[in-house]
């Protein structure tokens, strides 16, 4: 009776995941805008949001007035 030949078990090598390192590397590649451009974009966003808020408020008030005139009531 022969003994079975033992083959050495191969260890599975996992590919290393360098998520944090790759994230930092990508952040360094990005061309970030200057402070002036950033502030200007922020101002435009704030202005748009304010105007949109007032338009939405006006539409809501007008709709409420129409509903009250129709007798539906809110």
TrEMBL record:
Gene3D superfamilies: Preprotein translocase secy subunit. One of its GO terms (biological process) is protein transport by the Sec complex. Keywords: Cell membrane, Membrane, Protein transport, Translocation, Transmembrane, Transmembrane helix, Transport. InterPro entries: SecE_bac (IPR005807), SecE_sf (IPR038379), Translocase_SecE/Sec61-g (IPR001901). It comes from the Bacteria. GO terms for molecular function: protein transmembrane transporter activity. It is a single-pass membrane protein. HAMAP family: SecE (MF_00422). Essential subunit of the Sec protein translocation channel SecYEG. Clamps together the 2 halves of SecY. May contact the channel plug during translocation. Component of the Sec protein translocase complex. Heterotrimer consisting of SecY, SecE and SecG subunits. The heterotrimers can form oligomers, although 1 heterotrimer is thought to be able to translocate proteins. Interacts with the ribosome. Interacts with SecDF, and other proteins may be involved. Interacts with SecA. Belongs to the SecE/SEC61-gamma family. This is Protein translocase subunit SecE. The gene is secE.
């Amino acid at each position: 009776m022969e003994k079975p030949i033992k083959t050495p078990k191969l260890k599975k090598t996992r590919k290393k995941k360098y998520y944090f390192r790759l994230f930092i590397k990508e952040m360094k590649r990005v061309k970030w805008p200057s402070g002036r451009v950033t502030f200007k974009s922020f101002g435009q966003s704030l202005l748009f949001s304010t105007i949109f808020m007032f338009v939405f408020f006006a539409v809501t008030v007008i709709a409420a007035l129409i509903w009250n005139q129709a007798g539906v009531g809110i």
